Automatic annotation (TrEMBL):
It is an enzyme of class 3 (hydrolase). Residues 260-443 form the Helicase C-terminal domain. GO terms for molecular function: ATP binding; hydrolase activity; RNA binding; RNA helicase activity. It comes from Alexandrium catenella. Its EC number is 3.6.4.13. PROSITE patterns: DEAD_ATP_HELICASE, HELICASE_ATP_BIND_1, HELICASE_CTER. This is ATP-dependent RNA helicase. It catalyses: ATP + H2O = ADP + phosphate + H(+). Keywords: ATP-binding, Helicase, Hydrolase, Nucleotide-binding, RNA-binding. The Q motif is unique to and characteristic of the DEAD box family of RNA helicases and controls ATP binding and hydrolysis. InterPro entries: DEAD/DEAH_box_helicase_dom, Helicase_ATP-bd, Helicase_C-like, P-loop_NTPase, RNA-helicase_DEAD-box_CS. CDD domains: SF2_C_DEAD. Signal peptide: none annotated.
Amino acid sequence: ALERSLRGAGFHRLFPIQAAVIPLLSRGAEAAGDEDSPYACDVCVAAPTGQGKTLAYAVPLVQALLHRTAPQPRALVLLPTRDLAVQVFRVFELLRQGLGPGVAQIRARCLVGQRPFAEEQRNLERLPPDVVVCTPGRLADHVLGRAGRLGLGALRWFVVDEADRLLTQAYHRWLDVLDRAGAARARGPRLQKLLLSATMTWNPQKLAMLRLHRPIYFFSSQTGRHATPAELQQQYALCTLAAKPLAVLHILGCMLRGELDGQSCKETGKALVFCSSVDTSHRLARLLQICSACGEAPCHAGPSKDAAPREALLEPRQVAEFSSNLSQRDRTILLRRFRKGQVRCLVCSDVAARGIDIPEVSVVVNYSVPSHLQTYIHRVGRTARAGRSGHTFTLVRAAEMAHFRSMMEESADCWARLRRLGLPRAARLSKRAWFEEALEELRRQLEAQDG
């Protein structure tokens, strides 16, 4: 039934990390209670984004839950943000809905604060779920809070997705829930812990907080260092701060002309542009919309005359800001429009860098150089997902080059695969009349907004 559900959802082959992890977790479920079994162990998975880590644990969990007698919370999946929790919940729903009649109906519940706390409590009591997908704060409220009633006595699996982020100081309250869950299982099969991330921490002090039992580690690279998908083409461009918006317009123009991945990219390609702050995201999105509205951009050939040529550009409505400036509801609506192709360029803060699966992202632009390799890995992981090709471009100022190279050399393969992009003259000259007019219009809009 589960295989039929997977095929119906369009999954026909396993990625390497899935082929390695799914059998281990399935045998671990079968060996529950046998402490001498080699499969009675905790599991840590480090693999690039887009390689199917969610299905690697969702499939064996659903398979094991098909044989449960009565619904109780048996699997708890923890994620750092609402967006990621909702995305993982939908994967469980997809698997559940494809099981068909005559099969135990697995229930999943998403606890992220989208509904009032009292309503979530009533739903948990009325229809107990088999799988609980939640964020740290909401989990603590339902387990540790004075009014919390989420029972952990039957819990078999505790999944920590995006484990490196959840082990930062800001999220540590959920560790008290993990301790309570372990104590509740003292008389039954051991609670199995699953840790997953594209940038898994190997800090022994942080891992010690989890009290892992005979952990087995899965790496995507032979060295154990952070890696990127083989299908990802990585480039960087030396660029002044003032000319960075022009470089973004040039890269988007290449996408629209089909110069990256041909006709499909030209017609349906999408781009994510990552900035280091919400303020920068807001300003850049506005500027790109202004340039698109006037139909101006640096051309590929880069003529010497000051007036910019007209060429294929995104429409202003196809460019949008995606940051914490938006409410959860607005971000959800915007992601839906992006998936449908109504918006083709999102200018983001790092709120979109982790885990969110957006199909057919052709291009990722690092407008701001990431401070850490982990941030780079998560940003560029929005493209080249599930075996598709993808392109990433990092705009580097001369003063940042030493840091950028040092950071790339920390990875398993990034620096060796990185190629320099030569920008045409028109994408490097910011002292041009049309661009200065666009900057002046941006200033007027921002002043009106502040006023």
